[in-house]
Known about the structure:
The protein is α/β, with parallel strands linked by helices. It has 13 helices and 13 strands. It has 2 domains: about 15-65 and about 115-155 and about 290-380, Rossmann fold (3-Layer(aba) Sandwich); about 85-110 and about 160-275, no CATH class. It has helices at about 25-40, 85-90, 90-110, 115-125, 140-145, 170-180, 185-195, 205-210, 235-240, 285-295, 310-320, 335-340, 360-370; strands at about 5, 50-55, 130-135, 150-155, 155-165, 170, 215, 220, 270-275, 280, 300, 325-330, 350-355. Zinc ion binds near residues 163 and 237.
Amino acid sequence: xxxxxxxxxxxxxxxxxxxxxxxxxxxxxxxxxxxxxxxxxxxxxxxxxxxxxxxxxxxxxxxxxxxxxxxxxxxxxxxxxxxxxxxxxxxxxxxxxxxxxxxxxxxxxxxxxxxxxxxxxxxxxxxxxxxxxxxxxxxxxxxxxxxxxxxxxxxxxxxxxxxxxxxxxxxxxxxxxxxxxxxxxxxxxxxxxxxxxxxxxxxxxxxxxxxxxxxxxxxxxxxxxxxxxxxxxxxxxxxxxxxxxxxxxxxxxxxxxxxxxxxxxxxxxxxxxxxxxxxxxxxxxxxxxxxxxxxxxxxxxxxxxxxxxxxxxxxxxxxxxxxxxxxxxxxxxxxxxxxxxxxxxxxxxxxxxxxxxxxxxxxxxxxxxxxxxxxxxxxxxxxxxxxxxxxxxxxxxxxxxxxxxxx
Length: 407
Ligand SMILES: [Zn+2]
C-alpha cells in the first residue's frame, strides 16, 4: 500500500515557464504543438491514449477562485489560509467558522457551471483521445460536462458531506437546508447578499466593497462575522445508531433541541467529502490515480501548477514511464523543467510541450481543429471501478440544477 499521501499546500513562488517548442508562444503555434502532441505515434510499448490531469485554473472561467494568481504566487487573497484537517477535527470553533463560510460559499458554487474548457475535454474524449481525467478540483464540473469520460476526483468533492465517525456520505444540498434552519440570521444575510448580487459579481474589488471575500473550495469570508454563534447538524446515522469507537470509548452524540451538534459529543462530526489540507488521500484513490497514468501513453496537464505533491507525483510517474507531457497553464508549474528533460530541441510538440494560455479559449479551438481535419484517436475510456472516487453521477437527475452533483 505504501505511505499515506497527505494533501499539503506548496507555497513557494514558481518561476515563469519556458515555452516549448518556442513556436507555441502564439495561439496558432500552441494549437499546432498540441496537434503534434496528439498526432505523434505512441512511444514504444505505450498506449496511444491520453490521461488528463486538471487543477483549479480550469474552473476560474466558471467564476471559482484559484489558489494562485497568474504570476504563480500562492494565495490571490493574501490573508486566506485554508483550514487543516486536524484543526477541523479538534475544534468546535474551527468547524463553526468553516461551516459558516462554506454555507455562504455554497450558493455561488451551486450556481456555477462547467465552462468551455471542461466541455472541450469532453470533445477530446469523444474524438477518442482521452482515456480518463484526474482532477484536483472538488467542484464536480468534469463529471457534469462529460459524464461518459471517467473522472477520478483526487481531492474529493464538495457535493457531499461525510461523517468522520461512521464514514457515511450525505448530500450537501440537504445539509445546506439544515444549516439555513439552524442559523436563521445567517440565512437572512445570505438572502440579502444574493439579492444585492454581492455573491454574483466577478469583480473581487466589488465583492470586497460589499464586505465579502471569495476563496477557493467554496469558502467565503465575511470580516467580523459572528462565527461563534453558528450551528451545524450532527451525522444522522451516528445520532440514531452510534458506531463503537475503536478504543472502546463510549460514543456520545448529542444535539440541542433544534438538532445542532453539541460539544458534549465525541462523534458524529460531518466534514465536506473533500480531502482537506493535512488529510491523507485514501489508498484506493491513490491507487486508481496511478492506474489511470499507467493505462495511458501521454499526459495532458491542464490549468494546474502541480503545487500539491499528490498531483505532482502523477506527472513525475508519467515522465518516469516515458510518456510525453503537455502542460497548459498560466504561470509556473512546480519542477516543470524536469518534465521536459531530454526533449529533442527540434521537436514540435510530439515529445512534450509547454504552453502558457488559458484553457477556456485554447482547448475548444483545439477540439474544433482536430474535428475539422478528421483527426481520431483510438482511445476508449479507461475501465474503472464504479466507486466513490470516480464520479458516477445520476443522469436521471441532470435536469435539475446541480442535482446531478449530489448523488
Ligand atoms: Zn456518522
